[in-house]
Amino acid sequence: MFADLAPLIAATTQWLTLAYPASGGALAVALCEAQARQAVTVAAWLRYPTATDSALAGVTGPGGSAGLDRLSGAGEDPDDAAWRCWVDEVVASWAAGLLADPELAARAVAGLTRGARTRGTPVEYRRLLAPDDHDRRAAALLRHPDLIGPVAALHHERLLERLGAGQGLTA
C-alpha cells in the first residue's frame, strides 16, 4: 500500500536537496536534508490527506521532475530516471513555499495536527518551523526566497486554497 507516501517523499526530498544543495560538509548535508524532508512530508500529507488519495497517487504516479528540472535549470541524468519519476511537482512547490515562508509553514503544520493522518502520532517539525543557526547556514540555498521562489510560486495558490479549506478535501 502506498499510504505512507515514502517513495514520493524520498524522491521529492532528493530533488530539492540536489537542486538547492547544502553549503558545508556532511553535517550540513544532513541538516539540509532533514529540513527538506520535513517540508516535503508536510506538503505530501496536505496534498494527499487520506489513504485513498495516497493510493491513487501510487497508481497514477506523481508526474516526475521534468518540469521542475526545466524551471530550475537542473540537467536530467538518465541514470536518475528511476527516482525522478517519483518526484511530485506540486509537493515540491508546496514544500518550497513552506521552506521560504515560516508563517505559511506554521499554518500548514497546524493544519496537519488537526487531520486524521497524524492524529495520535507524535510528529515534530522543529527543523522546518524553528531552524537554528546551523540549520539556516546548511540550507541557505534551500530557504532563500529568491532562489526557491520560482518553484514555490508554481502551485502557491493551490497551497493557500488547501490551507484555507481545511483537511476535508481530497487531492
Query: Oligomeric form of this entry?
Result: single chain
Q: Which geometry do the CA atoms define?
A: globular
Task: Name the structural class.
Answer: mainly alpha
Strand content: under 5%
Largest sheet properties: none
Task: Please summarize what this structure is.
The protein has helices at residues 6-19, 26-47, 51-60, 66-72, 81-84, 89-100, 102-113, 126-129, 133-138, 140-143, 145-154, 156-165. The chain is mostly helical. Residues 166-171 have low confidence and may be disordered.
Structure, explained:
The chain has 171 residues and is mainly alpha-helical. It has one domain (6-165). The chain is 67% helix and 0% strand. It is built from 12 helices and no strands. Helix 1 packs across helix 6 (89-100), helix 2 (26-47) crosses helix 6 (89-100) and helix 6 (89-100) packs across helix 11 (145-154). The longest helix has 22 residues, at 26-47.
Main features:
mainly alpha, 171 residues, 0% strand
What's the topology here?
Blueprint (H helix, E strand, L loop, with lengths): L5 H14 L6 H22 L3 H10 L5 H7 L8 H4 L4 H12 L1 H12 L12 H4 L3 H6 L1 H4 L1 H10 L1 H10 L6
Helix pairs in contact: 1-2, 1-6, 2-6, 2-7, 6-7, 6-11
